[in-house]
Specification:
Length: 289
């Protein structure tokens, strides 16, 4: 039986394309699709979700392909393919349009969904991520890409060979370093368990192995397109204003926010502020439509 981690949510599996995605749905109102990053699962939204539902919104929080309780698929990890999963998810839930929120690794499919299925996305919120190789995030990448990007992308299963059996220490390293407030032990243990085992590691690292192709696709898309829908960026203590600077030339309606007291995992460190910004953005977009 699939466990619900979000307050008053219904948890279920939905089959899309070649995978089953685990998803939780809670609340009533305009739909907000919440996309987690690495090393997270849908449980990372446990404090944000009830605040959004209290604001009159319907929360939809899936585990991305290969992560959490979703199937460890062999392929399909390109951002555009992940966007296809999300379209299937919205179809299954009879949601015509959604406000899409992506953090960290979840920003690539969020970007791709808004870019390739604009008629299904009412607004876009991206937090704490570098968007491909677009200019503007030089302060974050001044010393090169984070070291784990290379490790996770190494061919031949090298990262899996290195980390299998050491998942607890490795995943805790990212969770502890990414949050200034700190995750509860219960949430930490739940996330660690989701990344345990060689197949779970492989599926997680497939998202990183797709990054070069995603970056090329993003650069090609922005060469001929801009976002006309409302875009919000929420910076924290790692990427900060970099995401906003990257998106500014390609967004007609951009709102940039910075939460300087947060670490990288903004929904954990500043759930009230994060939720308030998203709710305000959603309601502003709804008023325009």
């Amino acid at each position: 039986m699939l466990t619900a981690y979000l307050a008053d949510a219904q948890a279920r599996y939905i089959s899309v394309n070649d995978v089953r995605l685990a998803v939780e749905v809670a609340g009533e109102g305009p739909a907000v699709l919440l996309l987690h990053g690495f090393p997270h699962t849908r449980a990372i939204w446990s404090e944000v979700a009830p605040l959004l539902t209290a604001a009159g919104l319907r929360v939809v929080a899936p585990d991305l392909r290969g992560l959490g309780d979703s199937d460890r698929a062999a392929g399909g990890y390109l951002a555009t393919e992940l966007a296809g999963d999300l379209v299937g998810l919205l179809d299954a839930l009879d949601i015509g349009r959604a406000h899409v929120v992506g953090i960290d690794l979840g920003t690539a499919p969020a970007f791709a969904l808004a870019a390739t299925h604009a008629h299904r996305v009412s607004s876009l919120t991206l937090s704490e991520a570098v968007i491909g190789t677009l200019p503007g995030a030089e302060s974050f990448t001044a010393s090169g890409a984070p070291w784990w990007f290379g490790l996770h992308s190494a061919p031949g299963g090298f990262a899996e060979d290195l980390l299998e059996g050491r998942e607890d220490h490795y995943i805790r390293f990212f969770l502890d370093g990414g949050s200034r407030r700190g995750l509860s032990e219960a949430l930490t243990a739940r996330i660690v368990e989701a990344y345990r085992g060689r197949e779970s590691l492989r599926a997680a690292f497939e998202h990183y192995r797709a990054m070069p192709a995603n970056a090329g696709w993003i650069s090609s898309w922005v060469a001929h397109n801009v976002f006309t829908l409302p875009v919000l960026t929420i910076g924290g203590g790692a990427v900060g204003e970099g995401t906003a600077r990257q998106l500014a030339p390609f967004s007609e309606k951009l709102t940039a926010s910075l939460l300087p007291n947060a670490g990288h995992i903004v929904p954990i460190d500043e759930p009230e502020e994060f939720s308030a910004l998203v709710a305000q953005h959603v309601k502003s977009a709804e008023a325009r439509s």
